């Protein structure tokens, strides 16, 4: 009887530890990546893969690349612009945001000095957006269904192949559209407000 109790207690401890660690895992994360995938961010590693634009406090800390403020009275978005350009690709990203976060992932940036939706596609991270919710392709396609990102780790799976762009958030498709505005260019991470963190960013050229 005593031995049974000890085993049972041990199993309960293990179970509680696993439950407690669930917040560290992406809810719909990939198990593995093949050699064709390029790692841009892995935990708090990867800042060297980007050029900084704008004036926000992108930092590598606590297992993620993150930003939570603009410096001084800057009104410019803080941008991390990839050093390489891409045409057709898949992206896998793990991100966390708070309720005030206004952020996003830019695709095929054509103006590498002023990065915005006039020069690139943007996959939205902004729960409070009045028009293009998180998971939307800004100015191109609204997310359907709409997901909220705040307060948890989320995943994006983005595919751009020719004019077709698809977005999945937490494993569920939010965008499937066709658009010819931007054919090629770097990708970028945007910071406008609140707190946003990226702990995984992978890209696979197609």
Rg from C-alpha positions? 19 Å
The CATH topology label is: Jelly Rolls
Query: Structural class of the secondary elements?
Result: mainly beta
Number of folding domains? 1
The CATH superfamily is known as: Exo-inulinase, domain 1
Give the name of the CATH architecture.
Answer: Sandwich
CATH class group = Mainly Beta
Biggest beta-sheet profile: 8 strands, antiparallel
Q: How far apart lie the N and C ends?
A: 60 Å
Query: How large is the share of residues in beta strands?
Result: 35-45%
Mean pLDDT: 89
How many strand segments?
A: 13
Helices and strands, in order, run as HEEEEEEEEEEEEE
Sum up the overall morphology in one term: globular
Give unreliable regions as ranges. 6-23
Q: What's the helical proportion of residues?
A: under 10%
- Count of helical segments? 1
Description:
By secondary structure, the chain is mainly beta. It has one helix spanning 2-20; strands at residues 38-42, 50-53, 59-61, 64-67, 78-82, 89-97, 102-107, 121-125, 153-161, 164-169, 172-178, 188-193, 196-205. Strand 3 (59-61) and strand 4 (64-67) form a beta hairpin. The longest helix is centred in the N-terminal third of the chain and has 19 residues, at 2-20. It starts with a helix and ends with a strand.
Summarize this, please?
The protein has 1 helix and 13 strands.
Features:
8-stranded antiparallel sheet; about 210 residues; about 10% helix; 1 helix; globular; Jelly Rolls; mainly beta; 5-stranded antiparallel sheet; single chain
Topology:
Layout: H1 2-20, E1 38-42, E2 50-53, E3 59-61, E4 64-67, E5 78-82, E6 89-97, E7 102-107, E8 121-125, E9 153-161, E10 164-169, E11 172-178, E12 188-193, E13 196-205
Antiparallel strand pairs: 1-13, 2-5, 3-4, 4-13, 5-12, 6-9, 6-13, 7-8, 7-12, 9-10, 10-11
